[in-house]
Predict the 3D structure of the following.
Amino acid sequence: MTTAPVSKKAPLLHRLPIIREYRKSVGLQRWMLLIGLIITALILLMAIFAPLIAPYGYSQLRDDSGAFGARVAPNAEHWFGTTVGGYDVLSRFIWGSQTAVLVMIMAVVLSLFIGVLLGLVSGYIGGWLDRILVVVADAIYAFPSLLLAIVMAIMISGGQSDMLGGILAAALSITVVFIPQYFRVTRAEVVRVKSEAFVESSKVIGASSGRIMFRHVLRNSTRTLPLIMTLNAAEAVLTLAGLGFIGFGIEPSSAAEWGYDLNRSIADVASGVWWTALFPGLAIVLAVLGLTLVGESLNDLADPRLRTRRASGGGKVQSTSVQAEQADAQTDADTGDEEARA
Amino acid sequence: MSDQKSIVAIDDLSVSFATDGGDVKAIDGVTLDVHPREVLAIVGESGSGKSVTARTIIGLLPETATANGAVVLQSKSGGEHNIVRTSGERMRQLRGQEVAMVFQEASTALNPVFPVGWQIAEGIRAHTKVKRKEAQRMAVEILEKVGIPNAAERVKEYPHQFSGGQKQRIVIAQALVQSPGLILADEPTTALDVTVQAEILDLLRRARDEFETAVVIITHNMGVVADLADRVAVMYQGKLVEQAEVHELFASPKHDYTKALLDAVPHVGMGRSRAAARAVDRAEQRGRGEALEPAVVAKGLEITYAGRFGRSGFKAVKGVDFEIYPGEVLGLVGESGSGKTTIGRAMAGLTPVSGGSMTVLGTEMLGVRERDFKPLRSDIGFVFQDPATSFNPLLTIGQNVAEPFIVHGKAENAEDAQQQVHDLLESVQLPKAFADRFPHELSGGQRQRASLARGIALKPKLLIADEPTSALDVSVQARVLELFNELQDEFGFACLFISHDLAVVDMLADRIAVLLHGEMVEEGTGAEVLGDPKHPYTQRLLASLPVPDPVEQAKRRERLHELQSQ
């Protein structure tokens, strides 16, 4: 094994998940990650500061100078124009990010915990429990998420929903579809990690199954989760938009939602009104693109075989030798002693 | 030989790799020649750059590597090619025809979904236009030459239908079929048992004598070097430190590193005096009336691995008897598949016992329940084969070593056990500061010492060591074994020491048991088993073990051939 003498620990900032990956990346991969991060960060910022940035409320139809008017082309008052219903497109573009971020968070949180826990238990314990869970997961996997979301939407709020109802419908249906994904990925990792010698060595020590599962196996099996989380979030945004588009989404008076706006703009496109469809559509594309870019680059960077590196030319011979290591250990011991004396 | 044109001339070769931690130089200014029809051994510890040197010759460096210098390959037609500057199609033509490679793991070097004959023919047809039938005929011919019986029929079989040694023969056949000028063999026998290793070394010798190829063999086993090589190149930290004829190198090594390397190689017969001294001690104890209860007693022990879907199970251990007394080291020797690891695992309660009886520290292991066995676990230590994987990579060494204390309620958390952990690290000669390091930040030898520290954490009465040094370099192995010896003296635990290396077992064990296909064929003290082996298998095992001395090894080879012809 080539093990270099240990370098000093990197500062905490450089060891944080995404920053660590960013520092590792070069070239195209770095750009992909960077663009993805910027887009995602912009959407997050937009969601957090929506009340400050948006010129009008999401359901505002008039201001002091009177009604906005329908299908007004972009101008100084309404940068992105107004919709057929008389809403300001820019404001709904911005407020829509809030809905999107909420649905992402909900979908990820709900499915992450259940999926990972089930995967851990199923993979570690195995046997008939594992078989049943795998079959169930496969069955759910085959279920179209949008159909599920429609059923959810009808169940939760009779089809026409308020903000929470719409978000829940999208988040829950996504949860159902994504639990199997978290489950499968975690289970596969757990099955791999389970046969590693360090798990056996804890068994020999006499550690309980719970301790082995949570202290030794779980943390070693979470490598690929960030990737799925980003895909999960992207899928949640798409489902919410899909719900809105087919008319099961959130009422425009309770929250701004891009899919609903797209639905309303179908007729506009034919009559040459481009701004009502372009901006919400762009918002959906950007949100999904940003997340997917982050996810894909994280995946590539996590795998040493896919990670590109700077071309190398020089470098030093690493000390891989026993003699050198002995000396190294000796000096370490010496410094240790000195510290003890001091 | 120097008047001949060398088949490969490496001139001032340097190779660097781009890694996450910056660039690393793997080879630094190596200049080396390979002459026709000679076996050149490149030796050195892992990370010394020996494999990278070989891979440069065949142009198989990964994309992250940059090579500088020149590697000039002499082709059969007389042309010269500088490999460092050759790439793509030209390199592809050279590979196989001019230079071929034999990998360490024959089982992964062969594609499992194609018949072996097809795979050999594939290599031929990649370079020369021959009819499929003709290529097949050549495949049969070469398989016969490398010693595959019934080659004409077996040529249609798949890799899994061959044994490990046969697979390596097929890989060598694949390399030989185009009669390249040079074969690179990267640790070709490391994954094989000693008896099979001897056969493969014979085959490589024939490759030189009958096929007239040059062979570059990369190995860390000095016995293999003594057996096969004509000339030896010693690499250390990316540099070539010594180059000499094999007799000269073993007789009078010049460089300090070479001397240290040769000193570190264990010989059969090194541990005999020590074992004798302890046997006297034990006899005295018995004489004083201290009747010793054996720590482990096995009687007719049977272990079966359950078969799948109604198929009958596989019996890994078939009726083995042995005893281990407190303070005694029993060395368990055997080839892969002999059931030695299974016995160790059963002793630690990792594999259930299916028949006979085994009593570990007074508890019957046949049908034992985990709940009943758990309290005993604090009295049993286990040292795993590969120290790289036996530590949780996300916990520090300190936290890992503290686990036994926490699990058995002797400490609340890792900080609580800090003092004990430091003491333990000290007893395995690791500095205290290492407790804060992560496993990947330690070298193989350091990790295995930390693993020993964890094994003896709770002062166990019984320690099971499963090939604890087989993943280590020779020089590191020597120090770990020495340490093991000291710890055994100090703590006086009973020990089952599992190894495939007779010389290692001989250094440590009081008594040696030899396993063959799940049955114990011989048991006795080191002097009895290794000095005067009774069973033909033990004799063969002992004769197959190459010794690091070319003159002595040549004699042993004769004797092995005699044994085999009997």
